[in-house]
What does this fold into?
Amino acid sequence: MRTLALKKKKMNSKDSRRKLVTAVDPKSPISEQYRTIRTNIQFSSVDKEMKAIMVTSSGPGEGKSTTAANLAVTFAQLGKKVLLVDADLRKPTVHHTFGINNLFGFTTVLTKQKTLEKTVLETSVQDLYILTSGPIPPNPAELLSSKSMEQFIEDAKSQFEYVIFDTPPLLAVADPQILANQCDGSIMVVYSEKTEIDLAKKAKELLEHAQSKLLGVVLNHKEAQSGDYYYYYGAK
It folds into this structure.
C-alpha cells in the first residue's frame, strides 16, 4: 500500500477543517454527531453485517462527500480498518478533500491496471485508507455493473472491516442505484430547507427499487434551536 502523509498546511486549512472535522476537532459537537451516526449504523448490523456502505443524496451539494469522509474517520477512530472509496466517477472530490493527485484510483483497479493493494493510500488518520476515483471513465455505469466491480467489493471486504463508498446523487445518474444493489446498506444525506421533500422521496424509492437497505437519512446543515448544542454544519 502506498502511504499518504497529509500536508500540515492542507490539514490546517479552513476548507479541510470544515470537511474533516472529525479528524481535526474530534471533541467538537459536530464530531459527536458523526459518532452518533456511526453508532446507529452499528446497531443496524444486528441481523446482517454492514461492511460495504454507500453514502449518497438526491441531488448535488447536499453534503454526501463530507458525510462519507467523516463517517470513515469515525470508524477508523474505533480502531477499525476502513477504506473510503470515491465512487463518484463523474465529479470526484475525495482527492481534493485529502489534498492529493488523482492519477490512479478506483477506475485503475476496476480496469485491472493496478491491484487494490498497490493503489490504496494510507492517511494520517490511523487505520483510514482511501481510494480516489482515478481517471474519469467514459462509461461509469458499465464499470460499476461489471464483474470487476463484484470482485472489487469481495476483495475490499476481505481486506477492510468497513468500506465506505461516496457515490453520485441518486437523481442525477444511474450509478448509485447500481452500487446500492451491491452494498450491504446505504445512507442518504438531505440538506435542511434545501432538499425538496418530493425529490427525497423519489431518491428513497430508487434505493428501494435497487433492493438496498436504507440504514438512515442524515439531515445536514440543520441550524441549532435554542438550548441545543449541536447541529449546524455547512457542508458542500
About this structure: Residues 222 and 232 are 5 Å apart (CA to CA). The chain is about 40% helix and 15% strand. The chain has one domain: 2-220. Residues 2-220 form a domain with the Rossmann fold fold (CATH 3.40.50.300).
